[in-house]
Amino acid sequence: MSSRDDRSSMAIEVAISQIASDNTSAALEILQRAGAVFSRLRAAHQTEPEDLRQAQLTVLETCKALVCAQPDMGPILRLASAAVSAAQTATSARDALESTENEALRFVQTAARAARAAASQAASLIRNGSTVLTHSRSSTVLAAFTEARRTGTDFCVIATESRPALEGRDLADQLSRQGTHVTLIADAAASLLMHKVDMVLVGADKITPMNVVNKIGTEMIALAARERGLPAYAVCDTSKFIAAEYNIQSHRESGGADELWKDVSNGVTIVNRYFEAVPLAYFSKIIMEDGALTVEDTARRAQRASINKAMLDAVDGLHEEIR
Questions:
Q1: Residue 254: inside a domain, yes or no?
Q2: Does residue 291 form part of some domain?
């Protein structure tokens, strides 16, 4: 391998490591960075002699690393599935790497367009004079707020801090810069202020036939809204859908104890989760690029979102399918 190829390979490792350590960026933002990895992958193997099978294995290992870097994000698994499928149909090593890059970039571009359309659908639900509560920092939710304001809708936002990474503060800052009145609250105060809310709007990192996977604390908020008879919506695009739930083990399952308590006392165990699976039934509708879906329609659409078998086999032992 040439020194240039060696540098490219190191850049891939760094990029995946940065994706794995990112606890604050929205799913679409991380997906775009994951897609760029495949361009680096092709560049890393421009001069290295390689047969087709080796190139396909290289793609598969890269996809495995990406999935394990962000195991809770459905779009990463769907991206990896599409990339592996592209490599499998190639007729040469060069074709495998080029086809994979093209398919990965196409997937990301399609997801980005769909996310914008979903945001527009969500914006149409925000009424003049209403107050919307949101949790964490979804780029699609932010785009929905931006679109609603652009079309002249006057509304207020209640945003949670979104502990432990506090990405809700970034959302609040962005909204205030746009001129939207926003109130920042502690996560635990969401139920207390629910009487001031007209609707809940959150994003999603993954949609399965049973659950919406999103930032920890989402279930508490969805239940509080349901108790008051308020609509709770999750907004996302089709790239978030997968046909089954996969509990892929990673450092994210039990890492970052110091985010909750530095210099923790002996005998105290820290559990610091970033994501949770919330039953679909807790949401009024799931807002997609083509409109609002009922719980039943969402489950059916998710069931059709199959994953490449070779991709699933590659992470065998890292996941447990929940039937």
A1: yes
A2: yes
